[in-house]
Amino acid sequence: MLDWDDLEEAEAAATDKHERHGSAFPGADCNDVTDVKIPDGHRLRIFLMSDLHIDHRKNKEWMLSCLASLRHHDPVNPKSCYFDCLLLPGDLCTADEQFEDSLKMLTESFHLICFCFGNHEAWAHGERKGCTPAKDSFEKLARIHDICQALQVFTSPVRILGGAKPLLLLPLWSWYHSSWDHEPDLPQQLQPPVDPEKRVSDFRLCKWGSLAEAPQFVFGPGGETSDHLAKHFAERNEAWISAVLDLQKREGGEILSYSHFCPRQELILEKRFSYDQHVPKISGSSYLEQQIRRVSPRVHAFGHTHVAWDTVLEGVRYVHWPLGNPKEQNGQTRMQNLSGFLLLFDSLWSPVQFTHWAYFYDYMEPRQPGSAELAPWVSTGYAQVYPEMKAELDRRGLLPHLEVRPDMFSAYFPGGLLNNNGEFWKRHASANLRWRLPPQTLSPQPFPCENPTCILCGFTRKQEEGASR
Ligand SMILES: [Zn+2]
Ligand SMILES: [Zn+2]
């Protein structure tokens, strides 16, 4: 529990609106935009963190370590009082009790939390001791939303007033459908012999009640997902979108939208770089993309893919800032693990943050859909796990002769060895500390570094030049 004097005052301000209207705290069934006023003399900050997956003990400790540094965190002005908001775009955790406990810890540190469910919250198990299991994922999500409402965590749109201009926070519910993936699959001989229906936990753990009885509904068989779920959740967003756009038209303001799933295929890895060839079939929704195009937010935050991303596409900034599972924290989510929650807004929007893969596509190579030039970490992994693929991989010259060393694939990641090795991470984890809520273990380093080919320092320079123009 934080011992800020102003915490109670700020909390009272956040709930004032509901008391005035004499209604309960708005839940997921609320179609309106709820106004929240930043208390006088306070400064708004918005933090972003997705895919906390608190079911992993290590992740919970990590989260607590970040929260502990919150009370000391003031890079600019130690005297200012903050109104701290957290954006949580899903996959906090599955089990009801643990979900409630971790959300409660977060509500003790943030004045306002906005949450949008992920697939892990939709798994129809993890009920409390003595409770009957949820009969399907809709009932499970209703339980999750009840917990949010009881803890005064917003699951419907919010307008934050009291800053330079109103800020409208818009949740966009979503689900993936296989047809979102419009890039060609790898040739059959380069696809590992796995049955996606058995490998994707959602197919076992999510149940869709009467929606599953709709004609042509598919969820699992052949690894396919029809677009029924994507459409169903997108329909729920319509009332919210109208309310938010109406309000923006009448009274102005910027929109920050957020979803768990991915809106655009440009925001995930190509198949040649992905070990799991099924990922693009269980990642995104084109209904979500269309809704974002209509809403035209300043920023859209998303979750789910566990490959961090920050880039601008057609005028909209897309940010994915995940923690992911403990294994991923030494790989694809290493930056997040080392450097903490993203401070997305603090009087102004944070600059676009460096992420290896957004950098790769923005500055190094365009996408090559259909390319069968598997990355070495993919081809080597396939050869090890599926010996029957080895001859074909060899024939295509896709098995590099790697020296055995701990960072053996680093040389192949964006920027090469010097931008991915242990030294790089030691030095660069704190590169944008001003825009982080770091775990307490992080120690700041001086910047820029002395490596003339450093892609992170180069990226930061580009951003600063762009901002000063
Ligand atoms: Zn996740
Ligand atoms: Zn997810």
UniProtKB/TrEMBL annotation:
Annotated SUPFAM superfamilies: Metallo-dependent phosphatases (SSF56300)
Family matches, as Gene3D superfamilies: 3.60.21.10
InterPro entries reported in the protein's UniProt record: Metallo-depent_PP-like, Pantetheine_PDE
PANTHER family tied to this protein: [ACYL-CARRIER-PROTEIN] PHOSPHODIESTERASE PPTH (PTHR36492:SF2), PTHR36492
Listed name of the protein: Calcineurin-like phosphoesterase domain-containing protein
Organism: Symbiodinium natans
